[in-house]
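Input.
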Amino acid sequence: MASHQQCSPNAPIAAISWTGGKDCHLTLLYAHRNPNLNVQYLITFCPANKPFRAHPISIMKAQAKSLGLELIFVTIPEGTTDYMQAYVDGIRSVKEKYGISVICTGDMNLVGSMTRNWMERACEKVGDGMSVYLPLWKKDPYESMKEILDEGFDIIFSCVKSPFFDGSWINRKLDWEAVHEMKAIIERGRTEDQIKQGTKPLDLCGERGEYHTMVIGGPLYNETLEIDSNCEPLMDALENVTKWKGNIHNAEFIWMISLRDIPVQLNQ
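Output.
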């Protein structure tokens, strides 16, 4: 990393739960500045044989290279029905192989029908001293966004969903102008139809999956990332799956970043 971590001699080995977005980067910064954590790894939980289009793996690999941290992939087996057990098995595996005993995550709040933090539950089930670090938990969305931007992270929108966004947001910088536009959407409120359909309000930080981001530079980066993407984003229609339990804001359309054949380069 651009800044060497100062940690205590007995600090446990920590891994950042990694998607490449804004929240896991702020979590990395918190963990890096915490002398009681020895941050050595990034860890990504990904389903087998499914594209990671909202958080392209090629970008995550370039991020890890620039940050000087090893990126570990934990594959969730195809056909898995017990996702919690799959996470427990994955965490137990990396604990045994890499000596990781703390998972750091950028979760800010409970989502959907959850009553406890997912990673906290998984680490608890692993046992044997496995713990979770949640520096952003219950943090005010605006304060979190302000901190992310004030720290100097360079962020782009990589995935957005209706009804609050459209394809014009893809590749756009997440800056103060974008934050003010999102605040205006929140203040405008939902339509009567959206309320009847059970559409949740827009969360400023996208905690309900309304949008996703990728970071291309900022604190701890040795080089910035240059993303080569197509002007037109990918688009999927979700009309037939709007009641899918993960689609909690009833999105009908989703737009994602479209990368070229050689999508990412590092610049000094």
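Residues 13-261 form a domain with the Rossmann fold fold (CATH 3.40.50.620).
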